[in-house]
Design a protein that fits this description.
- This protein is α+β, with helices and mostly antiparallel strands.
- The protein has 2 domains: 42 residues, no CATH class; 126 residues, no CATH class.
- The protein is 57% helix and 15% strand.
- A hairpin with a 2-residue loop joins strand 1 and strand 2.
- Helix 2 runs antiparallel to helix 3.
- The longest helix is centred in the middle third of the chain and has 33 residues.
């Protein structure tokens, strides 16, 4: 009888050791919140965090969980009527050129994905860019070039240089300057408030809050 008891005792003792060894790390620290001492505990099994909670002085357990940041995009609103009107024109302009920009970007990504140079795709993109810019007003053309830079990571000048060479890019830049456009202007929403406004509108189009205009 004593032998059976000792075997059961040893079995439960060994099981307890295994369970405790699984919780390899217990990080405990005390913090004071509104005059009460709380203990932070994080249990780990290997490198995996199982729980993060606080236990207050009454023994109540408070579960803690770190949430990922969520970006919320919305249209801007200005108290100045002139600024509001200018902003609404910009939003409408982005919506009008949106489909053409996405088509041009899709062609560019197809060109980049080719293992060998595809002149047919390059000519298609070049012709589409020329056709699109001719069909646009000057302000729409500027928006088109800005947004194309946003998607491709290249300025319009660099894009043309990749497709047709430096000489052709210089000619296009010269022609663009006569229309008060700059093919070399980069898209930088971190440093440029105008680009940041454009980027916000792009996010609203991407998440379906806004829809493209024909």
């Amino acid at each position: 009888m004593g032998k059976i008891f000792m075997q059961k005792f040893f079995f439960f003792w060994l099981s307890g050791v295994c369970v405790l060894s699984a919780y390899a790390q217990i990080d405990t620290s005390a913090v004071k919140v509104r005059g009460k001492m709380l203990r932070n505990k994080v249990h780990h099994v290997g490198e995996i965090s199982l729980a993060n909670y606080q236990v207050n002085d009454k023994g109540d357990t408070i579960l803690l969980n770190r949430l990922q940041p969520v970006e919320v995009w919305t249209l801007r609103s200005y108290s100045d009527p002139k600024l509001q009107e200018a902003y609404e024109r910009t939003v409408a302009g982005v919506r009008r050129v949106w489909t053409r920009v996405r088509q041009a970007d899709s062609l560019w990504q197809s060109i980049r994905s080719q293992s060998a140079r595809n002149k047919e795709l390059e000519n298609t993109l070049r012709q589409q860019l020329e056709s699109d810019l001719r069909a646009m007003s000057r302000s729409e053309g500027a928006l088109f070039l800005k947004l194309l830079s946003r998607f491709t990571g290249l300025t319009a000048y660099d894009l043309i240089r990749n497709l047709r060479g430096a000489f052709a890019a210089a000619l296009y830049q010269k022609a663009a300057r006569k229309a008060d456009l700059d093919l070399k202007m980069p898209f930088n929403p971190q440093a440029n408030d105008y680009d940041r406004r454009l980027d916000e509108v792009c996010h609203l189009l991407e998440n379906g809050t806004l829809t493209p205009l024909p």
